[in-house]
Every structure is written in structure tokens, then in C-alpha cells.
Amino acid sequence: LLAFHIQKDKEIFKKYHLKSIKNIETLNSKFEIPVIVEERLKYANSVWFNLDVQFRVRLFIDKQIRKYFERKPLRGQSIIGEDKDGSIEIEIKISNNMEILPLILYYIPYIKVLEPQSLADEIKDRVQGYLKEI
């Protein structure tokens, strides 16, 4: 469940897990969904999205997993390049690393972060941390 919590001229965007909501009350009040919320929901790839900031992510997709990104593209995904070997480069907009991070970890070693460097570094740190523990 997505909701706005309005406090003295400040709107806070909140996300709730439906299973954990209790004591629901039905009210007679109505509301309109702001245009920015509608627009961001069109491109959200997970509940981790944020209304405030978006940034571009460029990913290298190896030919072995290319078909998965063509069959079911991520929301807002664009194929921006194709190599002779069949691999592709895609670009998406996200607002939180967690929107894409689990997917990248799932497809290692067939996917690589090209940009932003901060996301590539986070992936590298997580993988190195994991390897140290096993």
C-alpha cells in the first residue's frame, strides 16, 4: 500500500505491507493522486522506488541472459547498444539502488554495472563480503 502522510505542509511518501495493516477505518473523505505519483509508479520496478530523486543505471547484459530482458523488460528499460557477440547494454531510471540490486546479484556473472560507479562499487563490496564469509 502506498500512502501520503501529510503533516503541516510536509508530505511524506510511505509504503506499507498489506499483511501487517490492522485497525482499518473507512472514511468518507476523498483524495486525488498527484501526477508525480502516477508518473513514478509507471516506471517503478519495486517497492523501493522513491518520489524525490531518479538516476540512470546502465547495465551490460551478456548474450546468455539477454532473452530474459527482452521477454520481460524492466519498466522504463531501453536497449541502448548491441555488441557483435549478442550482448546488449540497457538503461533504466531508478530512485533507490535496491530497485535493481537484487536483480543484478541474481544474474552475476552475466550482468555488469556500467554506471553509476557508486552502484558498481556497492555490488563489488557485497560480493567481496560474501566471498570472505564462505
Can you characterise this structure?
The structure is a single chain. The chain has 134 residues and is an alpha+beta fold. It has helices at residues 35-43, 66-71, 101-107, 117-133, and strands at residues 2-7, 10-15, 55-61, 78-82, 88-94, 111-115. The protein is built from four helices and six strands, in the order ββαβαββαβα. The strands form two sheets. A four-stranded antiparallel β-sheet has the order 4-5-3-6. Strands 1-2 form a two-stranded antiparallel ribbon. It is elongated and about 60 Å long. The N and C termini lie far apart (37 Å).
Fill in the keyword field for this structure.
alpha+beta, 4-stranded antiparallel sheet, 6 strands, elongated
Lay out the secondary structure:
Layout (H helix, E strand, L loop, with lengths): L1 E6 L2 E6 L19 H9 L11 E7 L4 H6 L6 E5 L5 E7 L6 H7 L3 E5 L1 H17 L1
Antiparallel strand pairs: 1-2, 3-5, 3-6, 4-5
Mean pLDDT: 85
Number of strands: 6
What is the architecture of the domain at 53-133 at the second tier of CATH? 2-Layer Sandwich
**Biggest sheet, strands in spatial order?**
4-5-3-6
Q: C-alpha Rg, in Å?
A: 18 Å
Low-confidence stretches: none
Structural class: alpha+beta
Strand content: 25-35%
What is the straight-line distance between the termini? 37 Å
Overall, the morphology is: elongated
- The percent range for helix content is 25-40%
**What are the secondary-structure elements, in order, as H or E?**
EEHEHEEHEH
Largest sheet: 4 strands, antiparallel
Would you give the CATH topology of the domain at 53-133? Alpha-Beta Plaits
